[in-house]
Amino acid sequence: MFEVLQPSPPDKILALMAAFREDERAGKIDLGVGVYKDAQGVTPIMGAVKAAEARLHQAQTTKTYVGPAGDKDFAAAMGDLVLAGAVPSERLRGCQAPGGSGALRVLAELIARAKPGAKVWVSDPTWPNHGPILAACRLEVEVYPYFDPASGGLRFDEMMAALGKANAGDVVLLHGCCHNPTGADLDIDQWGEVAKLFSQRGLVPFVDIAYQGFGGGLDEDAAGVRALAGELPELLIAASCSKNFAVYRERVGAAMIVACDAAQADATFSQMLSIARANYSMPPDHGAALVRDVLADAGLRTEWEAELKATRERMIALRGGLAEALRRQSNSDRFDFLARQRGMFSQLGLTRDEIIRLREEFAIYAVEDSRINIAGLPDDRLDEVAKAICAVIGG
Ligand code: LMR
Predict the structure, then answer these.
(1) Do 97 and 41 have their domain in common?
(2) Ligand 1 close to Cβ of residue 34 (< 6 A)
(3) Which of 2, 102, 319, 366 is the most exposed place for a label (fewest CB within 10 A)?
(4) Domain count across the chain
(5) What pLDDT sits at residue 149?
(6) pLDDT tens, 3-18?
(7) Residue where a domain terminates, one of 210, 244, 264
(8) Same domain (yes/no): 20, 90
(9) 242 and 173 within one domain
């Protein structure tokens, strides 16, 4: 049967990760896949997570099954972290999922069960795995205008005009904060306008929040999703702990829904659990147990929040540093937007050929859509990176 299969085109982010690993040049710089790196170029395990792990190692007495919903205390803690009481708890349900991608998949399948072939609007551009996840659930993907490469800001009016023409029941995928790949986010007034439009037109928000705490702070980064939750009858949320707890390979995420009342929330949740059962049966326990314990223990939580703040501040400093180096090297303000944006990613606005030259001539790896991972920048080589960028753009 396999003879009919052709090789699948590689995922561009994962392919870049593999190419970087194979590159033997000393001093190569990885601005590709979205993992945080500290000043030493290491993706560290957070101190609070390590402490929780040591405690768990001692305290855990069984490895028996947890069930398709995963750990209930983890799910409740994630509901609090993201929504902080923005909706009454009887309307909110959540389950553990294998990473943010797992949560997206559970929720995409849920949409397909509720409305087969539903239209899901995604931002132009969006994370390259959104399309495949939605397509795997046979949902129709439509694009709404979002990013303006010329200004490094949003095409907000065009976005609202496009979504103003969407049909009632259409789903709209929004990035909760730290938009991937552009780093350009809605401000709180714009979130309010989005909530109003969705309410008027009967649109259903599907929020992917994978970087809470990486932009302005834990509460600031969730302000948008909380504004939607306060205004709308239904909401889907995929939350990832990969980045803000740095537990990437443990695969920790939460799939959450807000329904209009408790009975609909219960029925919807039972569908989510049956989707989980039919996919992976039950989510992996270890990483979620660590997140649960960090969030539940006052001391560990304080430690984690301090580490998260340091992570965020380092990325903000790197943004400022790179923008400044590029201003000097290019003698222009073309890249000033880097300092205004937030989170792990920005798009430099270089062509595909220029990005390939960066990789081939300077061993600097960026995604071909010109996305760079800010956290991959070595603090002491910002001038060198800026010089290379200016060399490939001929500046
Ligand atoms: C990224 O966008 O680089 C990360 O979310 C990692 C991934 O799975 O693509």
Answers:
(1) no
(2) yes
(3) 2
(4) 2
(5) 92
(6) 999 999 888 899 999 9
(7) 264
(8) no
(9) yes
Please report which confidence band the pLDDT of residue 39 belongs to, taking 50, 70 and 90 as the band edges.
Answer: confident
d(CA 251, CA 207): 19
127 included as an active-site residue: yes
Q: Is residue 165 part of a domain?
A: yes
Q: Are residues 320 and 384 in the same domain?
A: yes
Q: Match 């834990």 to its residue by tokens.
A: 218
What is this structure's pTM? Answer: 0.96
Nearest C-alpha to atom 4 of ligand 1 is from which residue?
34
Residue 66 in domain:
no
Q: What is the mean pLDDT of residues 116-141?
A: 97
- Per-residue pLDDT band for 94 (boundaries 50, 70, 90) equals very high
The domain of 192 spans 78-264
Selecting among 48, 51, 112, 127, the annotated active-site residue is 127
Distance between CA atoms of 395 and 390, rounded to whole angstroms?
5
Report d(CA 253, CA 65) in Å as an integer. 18
Q: What is the mean pLDDT of the chain?
A: 96
The pLDDT confidence band at residue 395, using thresholds 50, 70 and 90, is: low
- DSSP for 314-359? HHHHHHHHHHHHHHHHHTSSTTTHHHH--SSEEE----HHHHHHHH
In the block, residue with structure tokens 């606005």: 349
* Residue 235 lies inside a defined structural domain of this protein: yes
Ligand 1 atom closest to Cα of residue 127? 2
